[in-house]
Amino acid sequence: VDCYLVSWIVTKFSGLLLSFLDCYLVSWIVTKFSGLLLSFVDCYLVSWIVTKFSGLLLSFLDCYLVSWIVTKFSGLLLSFLDCYLVSWIVTKFSGLLLSFVDCYLVSWIVTKFSGLLLNLVDCYLVLWIVTKFSGLLLSFLDCYLVFWIVT
Questions:
Q1: Is a pLDDT exceeding 50 seen at residue 87?
Q2: Any transmembrane segments, and where (predicted)?
Q3: Considering only Cβ atoms within 10 Å of each terminal Cβ, which end of the chain, N or C, has fewer?
C-alpha cells in the first residue's frame, strides 16, 4: 500500500567562494508511492551543505555554514510545491568586549518559497550569540551570555 524510497549522496568538494576549505554536500530523497510503477505521490528532497571556511570579519577563526533545502514535490518533473531553505552559520571568534574568550555566533534563515526562481514568501531570521568569558566579579569562573533576535 505505502512504499518509501530513501536515497542519499555524500559529496566532498572544494568550495569556490569565501575560501571554502572543505565542503560536504549531503542530500537524500524520501519518496512515498503506491503500486509497482512508481507513481509518486509525495516526494521530499532534503539536501544540505556543511562548509568550513576562514572568516573575513571579526577575526573569525572557524566558521561553519550549514544550509539545507526541504522540498515537497509531486511527479517526476520536480514541479516544486513548497520549498523551505534553512541555513545557519556557527562562528567561533575571539571576543572584543568584557575579555570574551570564546564567542559563538549562531544565525539561521528559514525561507519558504515556491517555484524555482526563489520567489520568497515567508522569511525568518534568527540570530543569537553564546559567549563564554571569565567573570570580573565574585570570582566568576565560567560565564555564558546568550541573546537572540527573531525577525
A1: yes
A2: 6-26, 33-50, 56-81, 93-113, 125-150
A3: N
